[in-house]
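ok so for the tutorial part 2 we go from a plain amino acid sequence to predicted structure tokens. step 1 is just haveing the sequence, like this:
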Amino acid sequence: MSAVTQSRYAAEYDAIAPQLPGRDLPWLIKQRREALAQFSAGGFPSPREEEWRYTNVSAIEKKLFKPALAPASGPIDKAWLDAYRLRDAWSVVLLNGRFSAELSQLDGLPEAVSVLGLAEALVKQPELIENYLGKAVKDSEHGFVAFNTAWFSDGVFVHVPAKHLLAKPLQLLHVVTEADALATTRNLIISETMAQAEIVETFIGADSAYLSAAVTEVFVGANADLALYKLQVESEKAYHFGGTYVAEARDARFSHHNFAFGGLLARSDIHADLDHASECILNGLYVGSKRQHIDNHTRIVHQKPYATSRELYKGVLDDRARGVFQGRVIVAEDAQKTDSEMNNRNLLLSTDAEADTKPQLEIYADDVKCGHGVTVGQLDEKSVFYLQSRCVDEETARNMLTFAFANEMVDKIKIRELHDLVLGELLQRFPQQGVEKAWL
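step 2 — the prediction. this is what the tokens look like for a chain of 440 residues:
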């Protein structure tokens, strides 16, 4: 990392620290200072680190992004916002990294369920936050996590008590409207024993360069069921880091569906630690064009016996886009009877597009069932010819086959309104009328 950039962030920290949430909590001040020291020493991740070998964030280092220390001024395009807001859902809006009560819609939320800005939660429930913040992921994970811990300006705190069911999805809508903004959010999601919820993270932004750096820690209690969706359709000039770190208790069920369409450079981490007989499903679709760089890094750790994990990621890459998938499954010595499967499929639409994929299995137990598979290739010319023989022109035929390849992941979305929203985003990338008529 550039020493100038690094020292600039560190030098400005003392000036902004009094304006960050939790400034009266000694434990959080200490946690932030330790994270800042770690970031100051190591900076943002480097390709020299094995898990970042395919992604160079030096472009981020060349810009000095500014955190939002006060609520956004000026009007926001409500039509644009509502285009991404789920109507049949509760919604929380994070505007330039800060919770917006005015734009959020939480009417009718069950009284026992807590959904509020993290800054407010640090005032109202500091002891509960202290018990969880930084427990699903350590700042030593890499520089972006340390950076987030030191700099987070707000976020969302979600607490679903034991045996409670959220009747509607909860949407966390991350919105950036300012150029050169730094939207550093920290989310904390706690789903207690036998609770059930669906949560949707959506990232959108204005057509400008900015940095979204979001960390979400998730705790799924015993026999709880949590489904988390992520839709990232940010500006083509934007930089994005989103880390989701999950701790599952015994018999917990967690699923994550990740759709990455936007950003000039976007990186997603999804890491899950599994307990006895817990389940984890990770699905993902990344679609890149022009000079986009989209990186997905997953890690599933089977810590105890009888846990199950399934993972399927697909990538569609055109022009000079580059897609990265690094999937890692670790089976601990005590995790006998583990059942794990991981697959990554990539479709290249251009000779200049690139897919880097690295699946890894680390198995330290002897009674397990684990496997992985990877493919990188282009469209099957026989399938293209078959459609052409049915009076479909070549361009539409190729788009139809590409869409069919990607649409498998969209069909896994169980929330109908979100399914339609993601489908619309996908169709924008295959605009020929023949595709739309064939699938709608």
